Amino acid sequence: MIISILGAGAFGTALGKVLNDNHHEVNFYDPYLYPDVSLEKATYQANAIVIAVPSANLPELFSHYPENLKKLPTILATKGISDPSVFKDFTQFCAISGPGFAQEIIEGKPATFTASAPFAMGLFKNEQIQIELQEDLLGILLCGSLKNIYAIGAGYHSNSENDSAIFIQHAHAEMQQYLKDHGADPHTAELACGIGDLILTCTNETSRNYMCGVRLFEGKKLPEIIDELKTIEGLSALQHIEHQNYMILEEIYDLVGQVD
């Protein structure tokens, strides 16, 4: 199959490697890295689309997104989108999410992801990549947003291993409650896209969300941190996630201040 990946950053490139390993032809669209490749050229004869742009860049992408592409099977790999209605006009839409840093995937290290449709499982599953099937699209999207936010708090509490462990435990419980309150399946938080991604993102210094929390604990100001780390998905997610009445989310919201 011919698969077009929208977004040639680290994670999009890693997914392209997996698809190539599975004998698919991959074309990338990324106006920042490949300015000479138009969206039309990158998606010519595509059988499916994988969206892997940062969540903050989705509005720009969709401002000129062709209607014919919405009819193709589309897999969202971007984390930080909490409202599936954004994709209501797409004919065949699903999501894939889970723990796995791009470089490790490129190096061939094993990873497990959660997919909301068998089509995504068929594209990505191989000896390296295991896929769990969970048709709770909303839950998968919410987990992807929440874990990035919680990782900021985890970084802030990382000065004590005991505090870190307790923080992750409480964050996972709050994640389950959030899914239940918003009409998703709380069990989704037990899968790779939930607890798996939460632990990885909340304990690893290669996570920019985690390092954002570390820098906040060190006393650095948010503009300075953003200048250092660039894309911090948890900050974008805070703009769309309800934080009132959720203790940890409220704490993190107050910690970073209201995000514009």
Keyphrases for this structure?
seven-stranded mixed β-sheet, alpha/beta, N-(1-d-carboxylethyl)-l-norvaline Dehydrogenase, domain 2, 7 strands, Rossmann fold, 260 residues
Give structural notes.
The protein has helices at 10-21, 39-42, 58-62, 102-106, 118-124, 137-156, 161-181, 192-203, 208-217, 222-229, 233-238, 247-256; strands at 2-6, 25-29, 48-51, 73-76, 92-97, 111-115, 129-133. By secondary structure, it is of the alpha/beta class. The chain folds into 2 domains: 2-133, 3-Layer(aba) Sandwich (Rossmann fold); 137-256, N-(1-d-carboxylethyl)-l-norvaline Dehydrogenase, domain 2 (Orthogonal Bundle), CATH 1.10.1040.10. Strands 2-1-3-4-5-6-7 form a 7-stranded mixed β-sheet, sandwiched between helices. Strand 3 (48-51), helix 3 (58-62) and strand 4 form a beta-alpha-beta unit. Helix 6 (137-156) packs parallel to helix 8, helix 7 packs antiparallel against helix 8 and helix 9 runs antiparallel to helix 10 (222-229). The longest helix is centred in the middle third of the chain and has 21 residues, at 161-181.
Summarize the structure.
By secondary structure, this protein is an alpha/beta fold. It folds into 2 domains: 2-133, NAD(P)-binding Rossmann-like Domain (Rossmann fold), CATH 3.40.50; 137-256, N-(1-d-carboxylethyl)-l-norvaline Dehydrogenase, domain 2, CATH 1.10.1040.10. Helices cover 46% and strands 13% of the residues.
